[in-house]
Amino acid sequence: MGLEACGAEVTSTTWDGEGDGGVDFDGLWTRIYSSSPRTLRLSPTLRWEEAREPLHAGVDVGNMVGVGPGMPFVHALLRAPACPRGAVVGLVPCAQGGTPIANWTHGSDMYDRMVTRACVAGAGAGRIAALLWFQGEADAMRCEDALAYAWRMEAFVRDVRQDLAMPNLLVIQVGIATAQNQGKWLDLVRKEQRAVRVPNLKYVDAMGLPLASDVTHLTTQAQVRLGKMLADAYIATL
Predict the structure, then answer these.
(1) pTM beyond 0.90, yes or no
(2) Which CB contacts under 8 angstroms, 24+ apart, belong to 142-145?
């Protein structure tokens, strides 16, 4: 079972301990940092390896990376009764923090890198099962970007599906909870995200999840919860 996890914002935080208290969140927390031959990631050099946090190390260049929803997503998925016995999940991190969706248009460097990595991941016995998209904070800084979000996202999905020859590729989009640099167009971006109209797209809302002290990133606890929410959305399609 192959899986592509993509995004454009910094969707992870360094460990801050906020709200955790050592609690095992639905059996996921104790295994966030553990590796397993059933959980792989495509490395920056396009080789499969056992996935470990930080998942985006070497991929999200120029940004500090930490815990994100990817590993909790996999742990929740592998625990689900709907997941085939012995399944192996491959994560393909492609995020580049702090980028608006306009930077992910067809033919851009980040878009081409993502498609290349996805093609490698889907070669051989693997298959791309879904694209996880957590992005939009940078689009909340300018009104024109916020207003353009829905049609840009629709074009992005159409292009990805065409380039991967997967017209029905499942896309799970995360509704953002914060804005980069406290951008004032957060609500407008969220409205545009909910207005995206393409088939086989699921929406998971991060609003209400705990925020770190920088009021920009989610806490570690929130990343675990978001990973479980993404897994539930994916499992519902099986």
Answers:
(1) no
(2) 142/183, 142/185, 143/185, 143/188, 145/100, 145/101, 145/102, 145/185
